[in-house]
Amino acid sequence: GEDVEQSLFLSVREGDSSVINCTYTDSSSTYLYWYKQEPGAGLQLLTYIFSNMDMKQDQRLTVLLNKKDKHLSLRIADTQTGDSAIYFCAAYYGQNFVFGPGTRLSVLP
Amino acid sequence: DSGVTQTPKHLITATGQRVTLRCSPRSGDLSVYWYQQSLDQGLQFLIQYYNGEERAKGNILERFSAQQFPDLHSELNLSSLELGDSALYFCASSPGGREGSEQYFGPGTRLTVT
What DSSP character marks residue B23? Predict the structure, then answer.
């Protein structure tokens, strides 16, 4: 089955760019997602990319997909303290949504 | 506020018992999704309903079942509860049924099994 991996922690300085990485195992995944979870809250869908795309940009967010390496990244430009949260990568595979363990992003002032 | 409501917020029960979690989707949304979030297993997709019909199934145990009613609210039933079922259960809704639809998450129900 599908497996999604992420590094667990990332610290950046306010104003810098953050890059959160994700790898997945099944190349038949059709959609790949990035979610944000703030403390005590549910998940918020940030963006998603279809598997036939290489890049998607939405304001401060840029998603890059390398299908050959099965690698997905989320870049947050001009990171702010309000971006501190856990970021989940997820893949849609065989009518199942598979989530990574989440990357805790800490933004230092 | 996402517009998705879940009740109850917290639930404490004993092993072997049965509980029902309730979810009301955003007005107009036809799909409801259920997720389980626990420290040891992370976030897992359980099941999706679209307009009353089961659409997709994830890692849902046989002891768990769900349904979506004609008014589109959904219930997740958990039976023969075990300590390991303690988790945060999220419901999400989306307007359509296809993957890629933006999902709006509720605040979750925290289940503690003692």
Answer: E
Q: Are B33 and B44 in contact (CB under 8 A)?
A: no
Residue-wise pLDDT for A51-108, tens only, equals 888 899 999 999 999 999 999 999 999 999 999 999 999 998 777 788 999 999 999 9
State whether B100 and A96 contact (CB < 8 Å): no
Can you tell me which residue has the tokens 């002891």?
B63
Which residues on A lie below 8 Å from B35 (Cβ)?
43
**Cα separations in angstroms, A47 against A58, A64, A70, B3, B45:** 8, 11, 18, 19, 18
CA–CA–CA angle B72, B108, A104 (5° rounding):
130
Q: Do A88 and B2 touch (CB under 8 A)?
A: no
Of A42, A92, A102, the CB nearest to B42: A102
A60 touching B (Cβ < 8 Å): no
C-alpha angle with apex B48: B26 to B27, nearest 5 degrees? Answer: 10
Residue A70's pLDDT is 92
Q: How far is CA B51 from CA A19, A80, B12, B71, B92, in A?
A: 38, 39, 31, 9, 14
| Distance (Å) of CA A58 to CA A41, A55, A65, A82, B57 | 23, 10, 15, 17, 30
The CA R_g of chain B, rounded to the nearest whole Å, is 13
